[in-house]
Amino acid sequence: MNIPNYSMYTDAGNHAVDAIVRSARILKLTWPQVHQELRSLAERFPEDFGEATDTAVRECVYQSLTYCTDPFYGDPIMDNATKVRELESAIKLLTEVDAIIQTVFGSTDVGEEYYATIGEILYDLRSDIDTIRALYGA
């Protein structure tokens, strides 16, 4: 899977930001919500993802989400099966990021914090899939 370059300093950074972008598309987050996610990433992990709030990164993320948030161009409507596939794809990506982090950080305190954060995100994405399936039978 090719990950877009969001002007992060590392591949792991681009993966982390891509997970935010994918989630934002699926959950139809507004720009302020996405911006808050970028700030949270930078604040929680300043050594590794501090640049998530840099202008270049914000512009890349905003540009990649414009088609979802700009009413002038229309908001593409995803059917529920597509939403589930996108969420499953985001889960797969986060699982890959988790494996990279485990390789880099092992069982250090920093690694444990990453694992907890990724675990929370994976739980939320799986809950979203369950909700879509329960409500819409996708």
Describe this structure as you would to a colleague:
- This protein is an all-alpha fold.
- It has one domain (11-136).
- The protein is 75% helix and 0% strand.
- The model is unreliable at 67-77 (pLDDT under 50).
Give a short summary of the structure.
By secondary structure, the chain is an all-alpha fold. The protein contains 6 helices and no strands. It starts with 10 loop residues before the first helix and ends with a helix.
Radius of gyration: 15 Å
Q: How many individual domains?
A: 1
- The chain-level mean pLDDT equals 80
What letter string, H or E per element, gives the SSE order? HHHHHH
> What's the end-to-end separation, in Å?
24 Å
What is the tally of helical segments? 6
Helical fraction equals: over 70%
Structural class: mainly alpha
Specify the biggest β-sheet.
none
The stretches of 5 or more residues where confidence is low (pLDDT under 50) are 67-77
Query: Judging from the principal axes of the Cα atoms, what is the shape?
Result: globular
Essential attributes:
mainly alpha, 138 residues
Ordered list of secondary-structure elements with their pairings:
Blueprint: H1 11-27, H2 31-44, H3 46-49, H4 55-69, H5 80-105, H6 109-136
Helix pairs in contact: 1-2, 1-4, 1-5, 5-6
